[in-house]
Amino acid sequence: MPNAMEWCPNPDDEGLWAAAKQQTAILMVFTDGKGSRQRNYFEWLETQVLVPLREAHPEIWDATLSFLKSYLVELWGVDLEEA
Fold first, then answer.
1. How many CB atoms lie within 10 A of CB 22?
2. Sign of the alpha-carbon torsion through 30, 31, 33, 34
3. Is the entire prediction scored with pTM above 0.85?
4. 3-class SS string, 44-56
5. Degrees (nearest 5) of the Cα angle 50, 43, 39?
6. What single DSSP character describes residue 77?
7. For residue 78, what pLDDT is reported?
8. Which residues, including other chains, have CB under 8 Å from residue 43's CB and lie 6 or more apart?
9. Residue 4 has what pLDDT?
């Protein structure tokens, strides 16, 4: 099971910190699979990765969400000022 905290043992290291946020955010953008496979994946993600991260490290959770939002905007090519 991935543990986002293991990806960033030193949050003061900007490179490691950026990589940990990116890896955690990318876990939340699973687009492959259909039906029950996607449901099972997101259930696992919620219970095993996201809830523990939110509860134990809310500051990392907030930073990861912020990264995810900017990643999705870039991925979809949306200009938030025009939307």
1. 15
2. positive
3. no
4. HHHHHHHHHHHHH
5. 135
6. T
7. 64
8. none
9. 61
31, burial (CB in 10 Å: exposed 0-12, middle 13-18, buried 19+): exposed
> At 22, which amino acid appears?
Q
Which pLDDT score is estimated for 38?
84
Could you tell me if 27 and 39 are in contact, meaning their C-beta atoms sit under 8 angstroms apart? no
The pLDDT of residue 32: 73
Question: d(Cα 34, Cα 7) in Å, to the nearest integer?
Answer: 28
So what's the pLDDT on residue 21?
Answer: 74
Please provide the size of the chain in residues. Answer: 83
What parts of the chain have a pLDDT lower than 70? 1-5, 7, 30-31, 78-83
Instruction: Judge whether 24 and 7 are in contact, CB under 8 Å.
Output: yes
For residues 83 and 58, what is the distance between their CA atoms, to the nearest angstrom?
Answer: 29
**Contact present, 44 and 30 (Cβ < 8 Å):** no
For residues 44 and 76, what is the distance between their CA atoms, to the nearest angstrom? 26
